[in-house]
Amino acid sequence: MENRILLVAELGSEGHLKSSIRSLLTAARSLDGEIDVLVWGGDTTFAVAEARRLPGIRRVLNGVGPTLADGLAEMLCALVQPLASQYTHILTAATVIGKNWMPRLAALEDVAMVSDIVGVESSDTFVRPIYAGSVWATVCCPEPLKLVTVRSTAFPGVEVEGEGADPVAVENLPCPEALPQSTRIAVHTHVQEGRPSLENARVVVSGGRGLGSAEHYEALLGPLADELNAALGASRAAVDLGYAPNDVQVGQTGKVVAPDLYIAIGISGAIQHLAGMQTSRVIVAINKDPDAPIFTVADYGLVGDLNVLVPELTAALHQK
Predict the structure, then answer these.
(1) Of 9, 206, 237, 238, which has the fewest CB atoms closer than 10 Å, so is most exposed?
(2) Distance of alpha carbon 145 from alpha carbon 21, whole angstroms
(3) Which residues of the chain carry a pLDDT beneath 50?
(4) What are the pLDDT digits (tens) for 251-299?
(5) CA-to-CA distance for 2 and 176, rounded, in angstroms?
(6) Contacts of residue 111, Cβ cutoff 8 Å, sequence gap at least 6
(7) CA distances from 184 to 8, 14, 247 (A)
(8) How far, in Å, CA of 23 to CA of 159, rounded?
(9) Which CATH code of 3.90.1150.210, 1.10.3720.10, 2.40.10.220, 3.40.50.1220 fits the domain covering 203-319?
(10) What is the reported pTM?
(11) Domain spanning 3-173, CATH class
């Protein structure tokens, strides 16, 4: 039986497709089958137009409506579950959103899911990290419906077709019913306005416990990130202490990034943090402790007071 694959895309803050869809498409091509793309959100106008230009897909499914605007896991499950019987594989990015709704769908469909894959060996065999990335496991999934979350940094994104390509058909889906009043969004904020998103940035500047306060986090890291057009990240310790919002946490329980340049400032280098950034192309560490574990993965290290070194580095970049 030929594989039938559904890719569930995500929208950015301005309604455009996140770049993770291109990595999902690379992973899906390894499965050899027909590929559909599901776009969802409050306003999918831009995203649908972009999805129609993706190479090699059969059709675009458009789930649009006010109840999908906030991306709640219950709403996504209500949208995707009626489609499940049509597919052998459903893939989505291993983001905060994907990690939230996909396990719910697996429970509703009574199947085991495969999370955070970094490789595809066959239609039912995948490679995924375990033990905070220190071991790579090859797992076989015998389920008739394979639900998979994909680490997008592990798959190179496909090139998107130009304007001359023939767009594929679009099928509109009924919008799920509104949630009961007992469930609502209390607050919704967008972080890092004016900076690249953490998942897509070529440069990431991250801070840890060593920064000492939320004020130092922004005052020291903000100017450096602006000079490098970088996204801001943080260790779990920094997030737990209130230095940075949860959205920018990098690590095993946060986001996994693989930028061209990762600068770790005041981060000791716990294995949980290393699991989220050790595949970065170049790693720079700034820490006062010469024996900090972060230096074991760093390509370049600066040992000293970050309150002195970071402003000096920022000033030197500004002069160029």
Answers:
(1) 237
(2) 20
(3) 164, 190
(4) 988 999 999 999 999 999 999 999 999 999 999 999 999 999 999 999 9
(5) 29
(6) 143, 144, 145, 146, 147
(7) 23, 22, 19
(8) 10
(9) 3.40.50.1220
(10) 0.83
(11) alpha beta
